[in-house]
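Thread: 6-O-phosphono-beta-D-glucopyranose complex, take 2
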Amino acid sequence: MTNDPSVTECRALALFGATGDLAQRMLWPSLYALDCDGLLPQNFRLVGAARSQQEREPFIARVREAIGQSANAALLEDGRFSRFAQRIEYVAVDTAKAGGLDAMKAALGDGRGGVIYYLATDPQQFGPICRAIEAAGLSHANNRIVVEKLIGTDSASAHETNEAIAAAFSESQVFRIDHYLGKEAVQNLLALRFANSIFEPLWNANAIEQVQITVAETVGVEGRWAYYDRAGALRDMVQSHLLQLLCLVAMEPPAGFTPSAVRNEKVKVLWSLRPIIGSEVRENTVTGQYIAGFCGGSAAKGYHEEAGATPNSETETFVAIRAEVNNWRWAGVPFYLRTGKRMQKRLSEIVIQFKPAPYNIFASIGASLSPNTLLISLQPEEMITLTLMNKKPGMHDVRLGEVGLNLSLGDAFGVARRRIAYERMLLDVLNGNSALFVRRDEIEAAWRWVDGIIEGWRSTGQKPRPYGAGSWGPSSAIGLPERYGHSWHD
Ligand code: BG6
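Output below.
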């Protein structure tokens, strides 16, 4: 195997887990949208693979149905879909059996380069699938492999999975997806920081008081109990999405917008995270698990009542952490991270709160000042808001109020359609651009930090506290920033 994954054009994508939840909700709809936009190469083939034996026609009907239920449903149209369907084949695979990829091999023709393997399966299958691809002679140097999270459940298992992948593919062929990096507003964070000069002088501990990263969901485990119960909020969301967002906020300017320059800077942030170990978890982390309540106006079951639940599970569905980045830029600045299922609102945002004004000259007339904040909203709206103190217009005494300078990306650039993050990620894989994908050392550095917290929970016996579905997590989560004189931006 050479180290050169470059191909002039990819000619096929083999999707393992083609009938699974991720493929149905995100991948088929994203591939379809790319096709509608003319972004798939001519004659590009899509080989869906799963364990069950099934005919092509019902499989394609299922793909169509999935697109119809997705965020890209409006794009569905008979002519376009039948052109898309011509690209699709279905093969049954069994990686536990010798020759279990024969059907895929036949579908991929001579099996030479230009094939993207997308592993949208249970992560425990990554090793066996890579071994089967290698054994079938399908791991050519100019093929690519895309793997979903979770890669491992701790450092040791992540290392093992990465080794299994590395036995069949060189690092430059591997695209580890974190779909948060495909969100428009997340990519815009790089532009905001590194294409404008006004932020850089302020982007450090001298001017910034605290940073908050919240990813709140109203959904529960959505029928994924078996996966979720093994993961929990820390592994499912913090180890990947929240730490990646933290990296983009905290990283130094990269030497260029190249995959290695961007990823070199991100991994340095992960190495600089102050470990939270042993009894420190008590001060710096809060965990919770939802119980029955009301969410989005309707009754919601508790975690233990979800389909497939095992009673007495102690898996956390909410976690809040006070993290610190130990380097010159960020020393002493808390990064509050918070994520949970069945929260009051669906909301993903990054809040940068600047230091308060050093002295309030308006105090004598009874006016108080709020610190400036830069709010980067990822969901439900993509919006950037900088709040500033202003004088309220009028002839009365000076009265002050906060006003937000708002930038709605959709309005500013006339975005016609909000894309599924996977569309961008798939296009980057096709183009061989790995800047928005997570490198092996990043995954392993993130796990080392997460391992410390998990071990701290174990050694201190910290258990998740109950919180009602439709709330903002357990009440102790509110106390976490308050201990340091801060409060959540709700
Ligand atoms: C996935 C997690 O990675 O991200 C899910 O496994 C979570 O549990 C999802 O629901 C959230 O993604 P988004 O894009 O809907 O915020």
